[in-house]
Structure formats: structure tokens, C-alpha cells
Amino acid sequence: MQRPSNEPLLSSSMSSWDCMLPGPPSKNNGGAADLSAGGLLAYAAGSSLCIVDINSMQLVFTFPLPPHPSSAGTNAAASLSPFITAVRWSPLPLPHHLLENSSSHLLLSVGDRHGRISLIDFRLKSTLLHFDTSNSSSSKLGIQDLCWIQVRPDSWALGVISGSSLLSLYNTTTGRCFFKYDASPEYFACLRRDPFDARRFCALGLKGFLLSVKLLGDSENDVILQELQIRADTSELQRLERDSSGSSTNNGAPALAVFPNYVVKFTFSPHWKHVIFVGFPRELVVFDLQYQSVLSSAGLPRGCGKFLEVLPDANTEVLYCAHLDGKLSTWRRKEGEQVHMMCLMEELIPSIGTTVPSPSVLAVAISQSDSTLQSIRKLCSDASSIDLDFDNPFDFREESRIISKTHLISISDDGKIWKWLLTAEGSGDAQKDIAQKDKVTEVGKVPVPESESSTEVMSTNDPILDAITQSDETYSNYNHHSSPASIQEEVSFKTSLVGQLHLLSSTVTMLAVPSPSLTATLARGGNSPAVAVPLVALGTQSGMIDVIDISANAVASSFSVHSSVVRGLRWLGNSRLVSFSYTQGSEKTGGYINRLVVTCLRSGLNRTFRVLQKPERAPIRALRASSSGRYLLILFRDAPVEVWAMTKTPIMLRSLALPFTVLEWTLPTVPRPAQNKVSKSSSFLSRDHAPTRTSSPTKASSTDSKEAGGDGSQEEFSESFAFALVNGALGVFEVHGRRIRDFKPKWPSSSFVSSDGLITAMAYRLPHVVMGDRSGNIRWWDVTTGQSSSFNTHREGVRRIKFSPVVPGDRSRGRIAVLFYDNTFSVFDLDSSDPLVNALLQPQFPGTLVLELDWLPLRTEKNDPLVLCIAGADSSFRLIEVNVSDQKMGFIPQARSVKERFRPLPLSSPILLPTPHALALRMILQIGVKPMWFNTFSTTMNKTHSHIPGTPSSGDLRSYMLDSPRVGDSAVLEMLLKVLEPYREEGCLLDDQRVRLYASLVNKGFAARLAFSAAVFGESMEALFWLQLPQALKHMIHKLVNKSQKGPQPAVTPEIDEASMLSRISSKGKSMPGGGKKNPLGNGQLRLMAFEQAELWECASERIPWHEKLESEEAIQNHIHELVSVGNLEGAISLLLSTPPESSYFYANALQAVALSSAVSKSLLELSVKVVAANMVRTDRSLSGTHLLCAVGRYQEACSQLQDAGCWTDAATLAATHLKGSDYARVLQRWAEHVHHAEHNIWRALILYVAAGALQEALAALREAQLPDTAAMFIFACHEILDEFLSIPDFDESDSSTKSNKLDLPGLNPENEDVIAVGEYYGQYQRKLVHLCMDSQPYSD
Length: 1341
Hints:
- The structure is a single chain.
- By secondary structure, the protein is an alpha+beta fold.
- The strands form 14 sheets. Strands 1, 55, 56, 57 and 58 form a five-stranded antiparallel sheet that branches. A five-stranded antiparallel sheet has the order 26-27-28-30-29.
- Pfam families: Beta-prop_WDR11_1st (PF23751), Beta-prop_WDR11_2nd (PF23752), TPR_WDR11 (PF23753).
- This is WD repeat-containing protein 11.
């Protein structure tokens, strides 16, 4: 293939083939891992980025980080890819606009140890952008952490910690840095984004320095900083600093490199705004950013390892903390306080079946999608008929007690990815009561007395969170000890191992491929010839042997064979391996202890042979096994070579006391036509055939003078090996049974023997011997004719030479792959008149060096590709396809797979589909498809939803759609179903757990289906919006029909005192703190979408006790503000009067106390207080003026002032306490506009718009955000909810006139021009989507 002269033979975009296995991650990667909301785990392993689907626990793709463009042209060592130290998925949602050249949303930001930052496009499998770090002081300073921050609705910045103390902000479109902050001498530890405000993030230092940053734009002037300090014990850190101060290598290095065992991490609470959880090495601190104070701290008990990571559970108010010693602790919040107590400690590395010493846990991540799916199940699905899965043996347990299920992923340094199911269970009776009350409250809308009111329990059974890959023996432990707090309900926690992905276990040291000849028989006896299998064996530094299945790109099995480095590895036929290692003897005895082991792949047994009682003088240097697997040569350092017959019990035939430098057995030759009949089945490498049975040209040695006898005795066969001696002499010996004799080859001319270079490598396939020496010369010799030739590679010494596999039709000598001592390789065509001219020179494999290589011996036809197996210095294993056209050799310019990859389970991850196909599936799920359409891959599936026959294309696929009112063009839906048919047949759309959840809610209306489809694609905020939309719309409809919620309402008086306000709150079914049974672990992420007055008031009330013990003047002022907001004027007055006279707040507090007292005593001081309040607001930056307005009942003005001051949540709390009707709606609508335009959180803004009755503004926001399909779904969902509301049987008779006259939603009237436009545009959108789907290639693995 012609290629521009300046283009490398192996460009970074196509680096290797689709088949690559990463090496194990290490501490040098700094625990770099990130789990996306769509269920894709990205983690760093050496200099490679690995993507794993956690639903099926399968490796999706491995991306070797290419060298930075700035390193082009430098020497090999300088252009190596450094360790990846930070990884973050972009938070971009699935793009809805149908642009052909739209950028992918599956982007990853990656930072490495040299301070370089890249943006990687997962779909293109290439680097999209290299950030400009060249002109900054962060160059060559390793990256500690990364964080995406929202700047505008469609624009994100990247926060970066470089080196020890430099925080930089980059534009993700241009890659330019626009802000820097140096915190030296502090060491920055990590960055996290605020889940309540995507413009805000925090950076935490090892010594407790906390930098809060908010971005209003992407320029230096748009950055707002706030510096805080968290008290922490830093005595250990100071000692470590003293110890490392003398090291020059630590100058400017990031914390993960300087203090690898001193980890400080923090996370934002997903339930409470402004609250963060900080894990210092031996202390867990709860910190309030608003109060700038520590709310609580808890030390680790003696014997517990230091904290490694702090992870919040979005379902419940529980923290999971990973520890450096490989344990996981569970911390539960004490009710009414921000105090967390440890209630469970578990092992993340089970002690059974692990090596000694035990592997280390490097990183942990918690699933974000579980919480959203549980909320959907709780609110939408009808779980009564679908809970139990009687085909699943793991489902027989008391599911009614389960409060929450969450998946946790841990990564260990032995190449394993562990999947854990974390379960919280309550006492059965209490959970039943809560569930019963929830059912009555939600379905029947019966008012609940205060003493019995409760929030909804998280869920009962949740089949969607059961593991797909259940392990044979579930590793689990229970903890039935309740929290010491008597007010808390007893909750037990359980940790179960439900899945594991095993990748390469250690640094690769050896590579071996099977290439058996026809003389190799099956291990179980008989005379059937052994076929070449699609397996590759890798020896590792830890003594393990990993066997790779090429067809699945996975580790098929792993054997613990040696206790030290595997130094040699060879196949014996296709089912046995022989390997060796050695250790030095004791100081007293000296010598070496050689260990030789034969491993049977079928039985897994390891058999040692040649076991000696005493250490030997010489260690083993290498092993050479014949292609039949019958003979083995053992080469020693400065000792005779031993020849062994590898029978069931190996026998040493004899030793050869010659000064050998290299020895190689002959490879199988081109089979004769009669022999080729063996391999008539479809080729493994063929792209046109299904992989029914793998076979290869299992070829006989051309020295076989006879066919195999009936008894299969060894004496019938002979095999030969070529060798070179120290003096440069060459020779060929033949082994016939137990006899070894000279092959008597025809010698080349005398000038052929080299005098200037020691022969270091050899390859032998009759009749050709190819040799390489330490001067870089390559020589070949025909042992039957004596012909010979040589050429110089102008490279360093030759380390390995490997003949490519040959098939009928190939030319005689073929091609060789040559590995040099500088760890680079080349491919030469020996049939060419000038091998150097037509050589495939590969001076540097992109990003890494090559340790070992060999050809994959599965080629059966001339048109099959040549594939090289590569073991990289980064411990990765890769396959490289070589283009073997007659004109020119070269690597193919794009990644191609030899065949469709075999997977034990389909990748049921919709996020992986091409964008048009993903949008098609999303549309089908939204409009509603019958669950029987899905073809799920599981035997535990409900029989009604299990495999269905493939539907003929001529049939009407529209019958699979629901009979609900048609949305859009029905012909479009049929086309989309046809597009998705290949995925459906493979079971690649949804796994059976999600299909069951969808089946339970598919008839629950648009909102439920919309929430489910958003959650499936990882868009949790959108899913929460659809979940809350029915409640928000009903809240608005109640106002429209002048119908308050059921239950007795007290008479409203102009002055609402504390008692009447509490009565009003309790009459809405909400309990006071501690007033009734609640879900013991909180309400999950639905708190993010709170809009009802009772919800906002209760949330604010629960925070008040956390701050009672804070004594600073600023904290007291904030506390007074909270008390006034919730209507507790007496508490505020008491706190104000307790102010000491020397306080600078004394006079202001006294004035507030007098004014508030007058409000309680109903004195009329409105005019004077209003004047004082205006003056105080004008001259004082405090919120005192707002409090005075509250004192005289001017709540609307007080809310406006709070909103002007940026206290949006406080304004909403105040309004929820004192306002209602249109006054409350005005506050909500202004809040919605702020959330939409300033915070860029469209889903939270939409809920507020709907609750405020501003449906037209909500629709306009969706159109402005270029979400045409969502705008149409919003209209349909609102009308459906309205119809459902009007059809409620207990709708009052007094409202029959309203019911008879169809109630129209303001702004969403079907005759409205905007509504008509949205409908028309949606039809165009559907048609455009069909065209894009037809043009897009299906996702192939």
C-alpha cells in the first residue's frame, strides 16, 4: 500500500489491531480510573487506557497512548509513552442534533506522568486533541488529577492538577490554558465537581487546604476563588516531607509520586448542598462549605488501614471508604446529624485463591446508574409480578427487606477487575410498613396522620441490579449489628462478589505460540494429529502463565506455576506447556535451583521433572521444543545441552557437550496436497466464514521418511535442529527415536561463515536456516542445495528471528520477523532480490518497546493475513496484521479484526452504538415497544420475555410497538426497528435485567418510559426530571383548578406563627424531624429535584441541628438566618439575645431581636422596620435586612432580596414556608431562570418552570437547547399526565364543570403555534434520523 513518505508505517490512530490485552495497572498509575454514568469503566494500565463494560464484565477496547507529537524524531527511549496517571470521562450527553459531522460524546481526558494531557475520542479510537502544556511551568510535571467543569450549556473546561501544587484550567475546544493557580508549598491531592452546580469544583491539598472555584466563563476574569482550610493532623506528612526533602527527584513531582501511601481524597455529598466528605489518611471529616466549618470528624479504629478513596452512595446516606490494606468500610449517617459511624468492614481481596503476598487494591469506583434505575423502579414500575426470578438460584432470599443495592468496582494490581454488590437491608416488619404506607399514599392519595407519615422506601427487590455474571461461589458477608444510636432503625449491610474480569496478571517476560506438526498427537492418546489452536501463552514476572484466547481477546486461563520469574516457555503440541525458572541457592551452598514444569492445559496440573536434590552449578539458559512436542532441548549457561523425550514421564536421552550459542528445531513445512485435506474447515483468519472449527496446516516435517505406524511409536519419526557454535561453525542434527545423528547438510561456501560476529539468533524451516549475529547481519542457507546469501540490517544485534507461517502457494523462503537488541523489529522478505529495499522497517513500535514477538500460526490460505504477536515492554499483548501484497509490505493503515470477536455474553451497552442508532433505540424506548421484541441473552429470563425467533424482514415490525396514541410517523418507527434488527438478533440492546424493568413500566405512561430511556444512556439528571414531572405538573394543576391537597387545612391568618406553620406542613403528609418513620437511609437523588413547599422546608429543617454547636460569629449569623427561614422566630430571638456585648454583631442582633419580638407579639411596626431594613441592606452586607422584612410579613420582598444576593435555595425555603399560590410561583420561576441561564442545569430548571406553571418557558428552554425530540416528548407526557389526573375517580363533584370542559395546560394548548411547530419539527427529525441510521455502519466488535 502506498504511503506518504513522511507518514509512519504504524500511525497512532491505528496503532495495533483490535486485539490487545493490557498489562496490569500499578501504583505508578496513581489509581487512575473513572466509571461513567453509562456503565463504562476507564482505567489506566501502564501507558494504555482500558475500557470495560461493567454490566457484562468484559473488556471493550484497549487504547495504547501514542507518543506525544513533540517527541517525533527523537530517540526510541524519549518517544516512549509514559504512565497514565489521570483519567476522566466527559460529562457530555448523547447529542440530539442530527449533524453528520457532530463530535462524539464519548470523550476521555487523559493525563500522564510527563505532564501531557490528551483528549481521546472513544468512537474514533484516536487522540482528538493534545492540550498545550509546552509553554507552561507544568511541562514535565506529572498530572495528579483532572476534572470537567461546565462553562456554558454546550461548553466545558478542564481543571488539571500538575506537579505538586499547580492548578490549571484549559479550554477543551482549543486546548489552551486560561487560568493558573499555584498553592505551594501545599500539595494538591484531588479535584471534584459539585453535583448541585456543574460550574463549581474544589481542589483539596494534603494538609487540608481547600480551594473552591466557580467558573462564570472561560477567561481568567471569570474565575471566582475561595480559599478555605480544614483542620487535620499533618504530623505524619511533615515527617514524610523531612524524609523526602533530600531527594532531588521529588522536586515538583505530584503527590501520588512523592507520597504514594499518604492519600487524601474527598467527595461532594449527592444529598446535601455545600457538604463534602474528606478522607484524610486516618480521619473522616464532614465539612460545610457554606459555613466554612467542620460538622463532624471520625477517626479510624486501631488496626484499620489508611483511607484510599471516599465514595458516597447516591441511593442512601451511606459512605463507602476503601483502605490501603484492601478493605472496604461502610459508614452510615446518624439521623438528625451529619455524623457518620462505621458499621461494616469487608475485604476487597478475598483471602481464598489469592497469591502471597496478597495483591493491592489500586482504585475503586461506584456505579452512578444504579441509583437512577432504583428510583425509576420505586416510582414507576409494577414490581409485584416480576420480582422473583425462580430460575436464578441467587434470588431466594428475603427481598422485601432490601433498601438499596449498589455496584462497586475495584481494581487490583494483579490485573483483576472485581465487581461487588453492596446491599442494605432493613428489618422486615419496618420495611413492610413503610412500603405499605407508600403504596397507600401514592396510589390512593389517602392523607396519613403525622405519627405515621414517612418518605418512600428506596426499593424492595431490584432485578436490574442483580449481577449478570454471578460467580460460582458468591463471596459475601453479613453485618447484623445495628448502629449504636437507638433512634435509628436496624439496618444490615452485605457485600457480595458478583463478577470478575481477569486480564494479564503481571509483567510479561515470555511469549509462546503453538505450531504443532502432523507428528504431534493429541495429549489423550491416539494418532489424531494435533491442530494449531488460537491460543498464546505468556510467562510473567510473578511466575504465572496466562493463556490468551485470540478469538475472544481474553485470558482463557491462568496457571500459578512458578514462585519466581518465568524465564522460558514453550508449547509441547497444542495442549501442554513446558516452562522453567531458577533461583539462587543459599549463601552456604551456592549454585542455582532450576525448576522445570510441564503444565497440562486440559487438566490444569503442573508436573515438575528433572528434580535434583542439590543446587546446580549452571542455571538453565533456554528451552527449545520440537514442533511435534516430543523432544526438548535444555540449554544451560556453560554446561552441556540436554536432550529429553517428553513422554508422560520425561526421559533424558543424552547430553551434547558442544559450545552452542543458538539451537532451533525445524518448523513445520508447507504441507503436501494430501496433507492439506486436514485443514479444509473454515480458517480462523478468514473474514468470510463463521468460526466453526479452528484448524491450521498442521504440517509434517519433510524429514519424516515414513507415515505414522499403527502403534504411534516414537521411533517412526525423526526431527532435526540447526545450531551454531561459539567459533561460528554451523550444523544440523537429526533426532530419530533415541538416536541423535548428523543430518549431513550441503555446506555453503567458506565465505559464508562469519568471523566478525557471534551468532545470536536462528530460525530453521527445512530446507532453510536463517541466522542473525550481534553485528546486525542476516544470513540464510539452504541445507539441501548449499545456496546462501546475506545482507546487513544496519541495526544493533539480532535477538530473535521468526519464520512467518507458510501455506500452499507461498514462495519458498518466505518472510521473517527480526527482533533486535534495541527492542525494535523489522519484517524482511527473503525471496526478494534486495530484502532491505522491500523490508517493513519498524524502528519504533508506537509508544512502547517490543520484548518478544512471534507469528500467529493460524494461517491456512494464501489470502489470509500474516499476524504478529507482540509482547510489549509495557506488559501489553498485541496482534499486528502485516500486509503481504506482492508489490510492497506494510502494516494495514486501519484497525481491522481478523474475524468477529467471540464473546461469552453480548455487550448489552446501548451507549456503544453509533449515535444515530443510539438515538433510534432511545426513540423506540420512549414511544414504547413490547418487551417481547428484545432478544435477551439469559437463561434466567422470564419465559415471556426470552428469546423470540428472528422476525422476517417482510413482516410488519410495527406490531411490536405499543398501541398507545401514535407519536410521529409510524412508518419511521418500522424503519428504525429494521435498523436495530442486527443488534436485536445478537441480544446487544439491553440485558435481561433492564428488559424486565422496562416490561414493568412500559405501560405506565410517557414519563416513566422517558425516565428509563434517559437512565439507560447514563443521563441521570434528565431521568430524575421525568420522574418528578408528574408531581410537578399535578402541583401546578392543583393551582389551576383551585384544589388544594386533601386533608384538613387550618385557616390562614395574615400572621403565620410557628404553630400554624407546623400544622400546615404536617397536614401535607410530611413529618417533623423524628416525628415518624422514614426511610432509614434517606431519599436518594430525588432530593435534587425538590420543588414542593413541604420538601424544601423539611430539607432546610433537617440541616439546622448540624450547626447548633458552631460558635463563630459568622456561623451564628447563618444559623439565625436558617431559623428565620423555617419560621422558628422564637429560636432566632433566643440566639440573638445570647450575643455577648463585645461582639461586633451586638447592636444589629439587638435590633433584629426587638423587631422579631414585635412580630411575635403582633405589634404594628411595619413602616419603621421597613425603613430600617432598607437602610441596613444598603449599608450592611449581612442578611439582617431580610430578617426584618420577614418580621413584618414582607416575605415576597425578602425572597427577592435573597435572590438578588444569590441565596437561591434560602429564598426558595423562605417562600416554601410563608408564600403560596402565585407568590410562590413567582419565586420558583425566577429561580428556574437562574438555574437555566447561570447554572446551565436545564433539567432542574424545567422542574421549577413546570411547578411554577411556566410551561411555555419550559418548552422554549428545550427548543433553545436543540432537543427537538425531548420537546415533543415533553408535550405528550404533560398531556398524558393531565388526562390521567382528570380521570381520577375521586375527583370532586364540585369540579365536574372543570372536568367536562377540557382543562388546557397554559402554553401547551394543541392550537398553540409553538406546540404545532414542535410537532412538525419532530416529524422532520424522525425522517432525518432514519436517513442517518441507514448511512451509518453497525457497531461491530
